[in-house]
Amino acid sequence: MSGYLTGVLVVLAFNVIAAYAVYLPMAAGQLNLGIAGFMAIGAYGAAFLTNEYGWSMLAAVPVASAAAGLVGLVIGFPVLRTHGIYLALATFALGQVIAAVFLNLEVVGGAAGYTLSAYAGPYVVFAAAIGVVLVMLYLSRTRFALYLTAVKSDPTVADLMGISVRGVQVAAFALGAMVAGFGGAFYALHYNFVEAQHFNVLLSVFTVLYVLFGGAQTVWGPLAGAMFFTLAPEALRFGEQWRYAIFALFIILFMAIRPQGLITTSLFQGFRRRSNEASP
Amino acid sequence: MSSQATSTGGAAPEAAPVALAVTGISKSFAGVHAIRNLSFVARKGEATALIGPNGAGKTTVFNLVSGVYGVDAGAVTVNGVDVTHMPSRRRIGCGIARSFQNVRLMDHLSVLENLLVGQHIRAASLTDLLTPYRLFPNHRWRQEARQALADNGLERYANETVSGLPYGVRKRVDLVRATLAGASILLLDEPAAGLNPSETNDLRDHLNLLVAQGLTLVIVEHDMHFIDSICSNVVVLNFGEKIAEGPLSVVRQDPEVRRAYIGDGEN
Amino acid sequence: MLTQQIINGLMLGAIYMLVAVAFTLAIGVLNFLNFSLPGLFMVGGMATYGFIRIGWPWFFAIGGALFLAALVSLLVERLAYRRGEGAEADVPLVSSLGFLVLLENLMLVQYGSDQQAFPALLPDMNLRVGGLVIGIAQIISLAISVILVAWLSWFLKRTNAGRRIRTVAENRETAQLLGVNIRRLVPQLFVASALLAAVGGVLFAVNYQQVSPWMGEGPGFKGVAAMIIGGMGSIWGSVIGGLLIGFAEVLSITFIGADVVNITVYGLLLLILIVRPQGLLGKPPAREKL
């Protein structure tokens, strides 16, 4: 594999992991604009544990992503009292606060950034992304995924059916945070350098865009969205400068034309119906 | 708790035990009395109707019993358990489920998936939550939901997304979902509204079957013929208060009931 | 020293206040969290800079920048708001974020990503009152902000057009029944909120004498925070929120350090959202009917 191709695929792997971190809460109706903050927790966590305590990657990554999940869990309870726009803003504020905290933490280099000595090669990163996709596919076949949609669709009725709406919401939020932390940990380990400025609002926003572009109705949407936005610019070779402008223009036009996203449930239903008719 | 239920209903020796007891409940919204000191019981294996002119507070009673709103005063007892202060989510576990006047199905889910949501209270363990049921076409919960659809002649809609279905079908799916909770008491909010005559007949047979199986029904409905063929007891509400109770043939002679319905087109 | 900081906070707060009012107009009436507004703020500053650079007199340059912002805002209305009406609530919000990214990167392509020096439009004069230093630009921008917001508040309360807008904010259906032409009103509101944001951007550029494609993000997002803290949909709430954020920022810079600003400002926002989501002056949201 050429160095260029490997580099692109590594970026793809990180984008896929991040997209699923946004997708989980979104499936339960939460727009998380602070996902970069949870990535930062994972990244700095893994960096700190491998650097200062000499932990192996195998131990540092789970602990770092669990830490991100734990922060999600603890903060999720009060934050998820809010809904809709308020929740989006609360997560946005949360992301800003987390990044600002790391910016001020001198133990991890503060504004100058933090260099790691442990290294995760490209194949480790690919395996991590594939692992996340497989876990998500598994989850999408369970009742848990069903309840995410139920809670998003009609929380009042879901509650009357006996579903703990709060529990499902907090679980989705915290699991999303954990996945983000997982991706962040590998990000730090692969590039061997973290700086708080990287985990800004735009990182969160772009990730949300992948998911909305791909479609949040099915588990394949985030994968499709992340792949499109990582690979299409490479294939088309826009000038580096124009890349984000064209990306944004594309998003705007796409949202205007197909607001439900690329891959939808009705799309699958269409396939199923056709195949049923073909083989009765 | 259970002593209260028996004391409310233990009058006649041949009467069936009380399944649902509503005792002196009141509720006001922004100072306006929606329900005032309402008491009634629903007996096991019987169907009780809740009727009254529009705005009498019938759906509000369902919302108070199922816990969407808390009561201001009074008590609600389900199968001998006082649920007055129980969170709405837990009440279904005491054996009470409901349908909705405006059909509240989850629009993005298929019919079958809506029924799986309805089974939740019986499939609430962590194992059930994390079993990849969709990988097994014959998983027992799916089988059960399909069977319930087949029993109601709805099997061909199993994989359709709810939002695209006709109103009558959604109305029936809503009812099936309520039955799948395995509850012994069903609150049905206008189950026949919007159904055509043949669908209404099927529904009547189905509900009578449920009653014969020992389920307790509380039905809000406007169609008096429909009520007459199912319900043994009728509670009449007007402006949030009970104005009459008894068999339909008796309450329809009641002067106050006639007065409440004048101009409403009924009777 | 402290008085000086309070005055600086007031100046900064006045700009946040403009942005917050722009946001509150969009959210209070249209229920649309319009994230393109930080971009329009930047367009106000950057386009003025660009027009001056090609030799326009400064008042034409400002006029041109405001016109451009209004034009872009009409596009936002068309593509993000109107198209997203039937879709999920997230779609218009995300689409407006797309506009922010687009505007920033177009400016980046045109002018590069570096800070550019904005020419001094006003004589570099300072008023000295008992040891306090107040720049003339500061005073003028404070005056413009206060006058704009006071006028807007008067307009919404006292004029027929203002009453129409408030009816739409209360209830869309009622407004339509009463004969309010929403199709015409909505673009007007978009233009109004774009102008408020862009004026904020011009004042920011004049005051701090530098512009960049990213200049909208800080004040823009802090404007959102100000709006929430004051209470969504309340103009005076935005005024209070804007000033609070301005003070909080200046005081944390003075007493703790520049790097903690985001912790203070967004921490405050987070706290308000959790404890009192309707903000200081907002009304609690209505409850759902079954």
Describe the structure.
The complex is a heterotrimer of chains A (280), B (267) and C (290). Chain A has 280 residues and is mainly α. Chain A has helices spanning 3-27, 35-53, 57-79, 84-104, 122-140, 143-153, 155-160, 165-191, 201-214, 221-236, 243-257, 265-278; strands at residues 114-115, 193-194. Helix content of chain A is 75%, strand content 1%. Chain B is α/β, with parallel strands linked by helices. Chain B has 2 domains: 1-95 and 183-190 and 216-267, 3-Layer(aba) Sandwich (Rossmann fold); 103-181, no CATH class. Chain B is built from 11 helices and 10 strands. In chain B, the strands form 2 sheets. Chain B has a 6-stranded mixed beta sheet, with helices on both faces. The longest helix of chain B has 16 residues, at 197-212. The model of chain B is unreliable at 1-12 (pLDDT under 50). In chain C, α2 packs across α8 and α9 (217-230) runs parallel beside α11. Chain C starts with a helix and ends in a 15-residue tail after the last helix. Classes of the chains: A mainly alpha (280), B alpha/beta (267), C mainly alpha (290). At the B-C interface, loops of B face loops of C.
